[in-house]
Design goal:
This protein has about 675 residues and is of the alpha/beta class. It folds into 3 domains: about 300 residues, Alpha-Beta Barrel (TIM Barrel); about 200 residues, 3-Layer(aba) Sandwich (Rossmann fold); about 55 residues, Immunoglobulin-like, CATH 2.60.40. It is about 35% helix and about 20% strand. The protein has a 9-stranded parallel beta sheet. Strands 11-10-12-13-20-19-18-15-16 form a 9-stranded mixed beta sheet. Strands 21-22-25-23-24 form a 5-stranded antiparallel beta sheet, with helices on one face. It is globular and about 80 Å long. The relative contact order is 0.08. It binds beta-D-galactopyranose. The site of beta-D-galactopyranose has 9 residues, from loops.
Amino acid sequence: MMRILRLLVLLLLIASSFAVATPQSSNTTQQPGLFLGTAWYPEQWPESRWDTDLQLMQQAGIRFVRVAEFAWSTMEPQEGQYNFDWLEKAIALAQKHGIYVVLGTPTAAPPAWLTFKYPDTLRTEENGQRAKHGNRQHFDFTSERYRQFCHQIAGEMAKRFGHNPNVIGWQIDNEYATYSYDPETQRQFQEWLKKKYGTLDSLNQHWTTAYWSQTYDKWEEIPIPVGYNNPGLMLEWKRFVSDTYRSYQKNQIDAIRQYADPRQWITHNFMGWFDGFDHYVVSADLDMASWDNYVGTGQLDPAGNGMIHDLTRGFKRKNYWVMETQPGNVNWSGINNVLDKGEVREMAWEDIGHGADAVGYWQWRSALGGQEQYHGTLVGPDGKPMPLYPEVAEVGKEFAKVGDLLRGTSPVAQVAILHSYDSRWAIDWQKHTKEYDQFANFKSYYKPLHELADTIDVVNPKAPLDEYKLIVAPNLNLLPEEEAKHLLAFVQAGGHLVLGPRSGMKDQFNALLPERQPGPLASALGAHVAQYYALDQPVPLTGDFGSGEAKIWAELLQPDAADTKVLEKYGKSNGWLDDQAAIVTHNYGKGTITYVGAWLPDDAMTALAKWMIETSGVKSEFTNVPAGVEVCRRTGQGKDVFIVINHTKQPQQIALPYAMREQLRSTPPLTEIELAGRDVAVLTK
Ligand code: GAL
């Protein structure tokens, strides 16, 4: 007995000394599994009000605030004079309420003293005019002087808060979006080109500059493209912009990392489908990606939104945060309607289902002045809860209840959809038909695939592909040799690769390949594209995936190998396409390669998705889920957690694949569940 007692005392001593020795790590382990949060601007309100705000947040289950990302003029009211005392107080007060802090660096909105004294830090618009003070994002992303100021303010913040136990992470800047067209940016672009191409001969050749006498004899002659321009020049400008935002961001990461504890992560809040730069490049130096998820006008589009979640998760190929989302309505869309009752909760759970570990509402309280007075908030200008507050508080309760269950889990997919900015840009610059909306094209593949396979990854073509059974590339217009080899290796090893229209047409310089589509994949496909057609009229289709009409785009596929199978054909239309192949498939190595030449109608797409899933051996647990019900799966820590969301307004009966417990309501094992309109279930074995 004494020996047991002594052992217990010893264990207690070890445990307590550990707690004293590592206060920060013990603090970190108390972090919630799922974070609910909000953007909070204490600098806009008297200090006497902060405690009330934080108390209201705490009551709603809010566990993080993002602060300071627009507070430069408060943190550095004059050049070199820093004032962080207010922020320190706000962080400490938040801690008292169990609320963690994400610090934003304020560089999206440089203060008036800075831009007035150093006008060269202001960006230049396309028309050559300098941006003026009074809005945000008026900085020049290549300006060395501006970068020094950014380094300084980020470093000063990190010096002060880099060891603060209540600060868990950093957001660099806010929603990168703008470029600059000033002479210094142009010079840097020319330098960048020189480094990449080495000689002007090489550049002239890759860009076919003999065309329209564009031939460059000096690097200084190369312009920044404005409007439609040489495709090679346009693509390299976007790549330069991507590298420039990466270095703009790295400058601040380095400043923070000089002082901050490694446990403090660094992110940036991206903007979903926005393609102003290559997000794979810009996320490379971040610890984690995050994005700002806004509906704008109308209601949630579950498939479109889910696809962007998966796109964002693919930037780092791991869980991410929804740093901002709309508390009911925005102020910047065509019609700023308030989301339906229950829809904000529905959205929050879709976020989590796709691998977000946090949902942050923008913003907490209406600023009395400033450009966003009409935006949705959780408390009104009077400081009292808005009608949405109880719904968010319900989400807060639910996150607290199942946060631990979801900790350490993430979506694990057998299917990947390939996404490349280079290809997206290339198509958008020369759509060939104004109807060619790439978001719609991408979604036409994503939606039926996600309905059949609960989890889909959206990744860059350079990502490792071994873990997948099925790879779908809806728009791989640029297909550099290396990427083609990577895809062929996947097929050779037994995978199924499905290419969509406009695939394999161009090289890495955005030049046409001197061969027919899909270029380096044509011989493995045993077929090629004889001609592509922008459609002014729909074209009939028949075959394995049913009859219907192709619209917008059709490619005439020409089988080259005896064993290439035609799965779908065109009917009578413009004469050229009559009875020609629209979809073909061919075995290659241990795998299969399929080419879809037409923009398919929904029914054919659903049948195609079913075939892709079945022939690729992709398995999922839920089958026969009612239309409008989404199943998401997060895996890890030896378990699967299913998040099932009824996106319809009607109740739905859902058959469960095996006896499951509903964790939000703590039910016993069930084999069927009824969900009310817009309701959610979190299910485990
Ligand atoms: C985001 C931005 C926020 C706020 C919000 C309004 O794009 O990051 O600062 O402006 O939009 O919807």
